[in-house]
């Protein structure tokens, strides 16, 4: 479904969100104080405006209150980022996502009511560490302190076995969410589905259990 999103701050993060959301068919209002940044996204937004997003009256006059979603990607200016988030919150925007530069920034944003706080450099660093740590794991998503989703390539040791035979849930308390075979993604794997070497397994579970599976189940 088509969404209306206001994106504030057009650094690399904000700009890349603009481009991708536009590609996915959504309506975007982009705001930045920098004319050059605004011009750069004029081709991929419904409206791109040069404005200061910490000015409540400006946001009101742009009709920001009618948007369902807001993304605040104001970089290192902590004060502006927090103030802008606060104004959007008071306007009643239902989902507000904000980019933070560090943990302290993240905590403040959560206190003022950001629905989701993203620390791209930190999060990508964690993900990449997991890629490098394990040759088997090809992707890693943090769900919480305790739970995550991993993608791993099925090694020859489990090739030819069905999910029933592997019994991953009972033995390791992990759930196979999907099996990817090249372009084909099976998002509702059944017990009789057979794993073939090179298939990609998408698994969800407690981090300790996933580690156990990786070490002992393959
Ligand atoms: P990235 O890492 O994604 O490139 P960043 O977090 O390092 O970005 P910047 O590159 O500085 O941050 O991008 C932040 C953008 O936010 C800039 O284009 C800046 O002009 C804009 N910005 C800062 N303050 C405001 C404000 N009050 N209103 C609107 N835009 C703002
Ligand atoms: P991030 O966005 O991940 O916070 P960044 O890409 O914005 O990082 P910096 O914050 O400047 O970049 O971090 C780069 C780090 O690399 C700094 O700690 C800096 O001291 C270090 N660095 C830069 N040049 C060299 C060099 N020639 N040799 C060793 N370290 C370097
Ligand atoms: Ca940056």
Automatic annotation (TrEMBL):
PANTHER family: KTR SYSTEM POTASSIUM UPTAKE PROTEIN C, POTASSIUM CHANNEL PROTEIN 2-RELATED-RELATED. It comes from Planococcus kocurii. PROSITE patterns: RCK_C (PS51202), RCK_N (PS51201). SUPFAM superfamilies: NAD(P)-binding Rossmann-fold domains, TrkA C-terminal domain-like. It holds the Pfam family TrkA_N. InterPro entries: NAD(P)-bd_dom_sf, RCK_C, RCK_C_sf, RCK_N, Trk_Ktr_HKT_K-transport. Residues 2-118 form the RCK N-terminal domain. This is Potassium transporter Trk. Residues 135-218 form the RCK C-terminal domain.
């Amino acid at each position: 479904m088509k969404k209306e999103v206001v994106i504030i701050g057009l650094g690399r993060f904000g700009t890349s969100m603009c481009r991708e959301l536009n590609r996915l068919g959504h309506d975007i209002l982009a705001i930045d104080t920098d004319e050059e940044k605004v011009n750069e996204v004029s081709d991929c937004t419904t409206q791109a405006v040069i404005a200061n997003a910490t000015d409540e009256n400006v946001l009101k006059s742009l009709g920001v209150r009618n948007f369902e979603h807001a993304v605040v990607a104001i970089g290192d200016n902590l004060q502006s980022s927090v103030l802008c988030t606060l104004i959007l919150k008071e306007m009643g925007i239902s989902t507000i996502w904000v980019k933070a530069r560090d943990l302290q920034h993240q905590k403040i944003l959560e206190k003022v009511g950001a629905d989701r706080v993203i620390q791209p450099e930190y999060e990508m660093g964690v993900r990449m560490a997991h890629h490098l740590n394990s040759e088997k794991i090809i992707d890693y998503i943090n769900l919480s302190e305790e739970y995550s989703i991993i993608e791993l390539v099925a090694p020859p040791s489990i090739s030819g076995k069905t999910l029933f035979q592997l019994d991953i849930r009972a033995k390791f308390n992990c759930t196979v969410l999907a099996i990817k075979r090249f372009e084909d993604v099976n998002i509702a794997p059944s017990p009789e589905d057979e794993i073939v070497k090179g298939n990609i397994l998408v698994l969800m579970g407690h981090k300790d259990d996933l580690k156990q599976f990786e070490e002992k189940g393959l």
